[in-house]
């Protein structure tokens, strides 16, 4: 602080550690260097402050003083032995730091030190002169050069100080360096000369003019073939461009062999600079030249909505029907997709062929499809006024109307507009779906109401390639308002189509859809079966739909009905680990011992699929050891499966409830042997157990909950419930 002298003296008298570093590694001496506290720096040094202590960036107080231009403080540090050659952050010396900020007096102080190398480079290969040129300090540059600094050293990217003066537009520095003899056509690693850089960034044009006057080559190409003219256009530098065009005259080739396919005209069209475009057009015999990707200047201007450029290009004969090579999109496609209304209208009015309005891209999409997809009703109306066909289809056989109903964000007006212009509602896509299917699936009720008015009954009830109706899709996606609308209009007097009925779909979609169906068709539909003999209750069990399961049970759903795999809803819930559904079924007194076609009970399936919580819940409702020890077609008990899958809690509770540890499966393996990772390991374990001594040996682990100890015998693993009885 400005009033901190007395505080400092007090702390010094108390013998505090004056070399204490902060989180960023700075000492009090660094802080004096930042703020230029000359007197306080002497106090600290007199009391033992380390002059060349570095912070976390590797900078000493001298680096900091030079960076902030505190020449008196720098002189003090130097007089106390600070190292002027020490490299700090990114390899910079104090001389680099002073030139980086343009502080001439600090620079002069450092040059007076014996042994200071003016041409020392930092980690990027830059000398102090590079930084003086970049910052735009002709005074520092003159001082450095007069003391012998080299002006022809390139850094690691091949740039001279002249490059940095040019890129920042520092005319005085460019003037000095060129006057010293710096090579004006020297190129960096990317092939850029000082003129390339000045053309892009020197908006006043002074550096460009001076370089051109001193034999800088305006036709010099970088490694990609771009000349300073390309750079001037890319930088929107019309002043530099005028000078460059005047320098090259009328003989320059801006397109054709030997030059990049991306011409200055393409760049100007992309940037949207009307004035630059006007300067360039006389140098091009035609404006329909293309880049490597088949892009014309008109395509680029249309993509970005540069109306003034589009107007000028059209005046010079730009063709609206030309498409790029990537997406095969025309300027009209891009304008419609990007919502550039004025550009679109301009292109449509000046198209050489009025059929261009329906020109398809690589995916057979028209501009109208893209406009509708973007929710741009104004662009869509403009296209329709120009006779765009609303019934064209893309590769998926989707017309614009499909896109209009497919998204709820401001699509209702688009549907109305398209239908008013003759859009057909009965078109079918590659999946056999109509727009009614899609609007039902998306929940677009407004669109459905308009579409149904235009449809015959046979079209409204049509099946897609999966034999699904619009009612199926509305139910599946939980669009209850659409479900109610379809039912109210009595389109489906009976349930038709895929056996995976709307009722099955409604279970997935939600209880509201399910109630609407039951209210319309009656309670009998709750036991409809699909192609796999699954009822809606099976579907609720598989997907964990709790409210739907409750509703189905309340309305007479059969709890023990089996599907084609012999599974009841209970088995389906156990197999999928739907614990809450499982609890509902168990409390509804279902048959807990029922088996599927493979002989698996619910307990088998829970253990087989590693659903530990489901297995424990089932065990709470089982009080019969015979159920616990039931075997499937492979003669495996639930204990075999729990052991194999590492279900510790389930295994423990199975044994508590009487599961046999000696039960043999079809391979002659006990539950213990099922713990082995494969059959070979299980056989090895069996051999070892068979060769135990007659006196059984206790395992170390005891089940503290049940006071059960497991022991090994030649017959396998058995257990005793009272450890004290084992001798």
UniProtKB/TrEMBL annotation:
Keywords: ANK repeat, Repeat. Transmembrane segments: none annotated. The keyword Ribonucleoprotein does not apply. ANK repeats lie at residues 24-56, 57-83, 90-123, 124-156, 157-189, 190-223, 260-292, 293-325, 532-564, 565-597, 598-630, 634-666. Gene3D superfamilies: Ankyrin repeat-containing domain. InterPro entries: Ankyrin_rpt (IPR002110), Ankyrin_rpt-contain_sf (IPR036770). It comes from the Eukaryota. This is Uncharacterized protein.
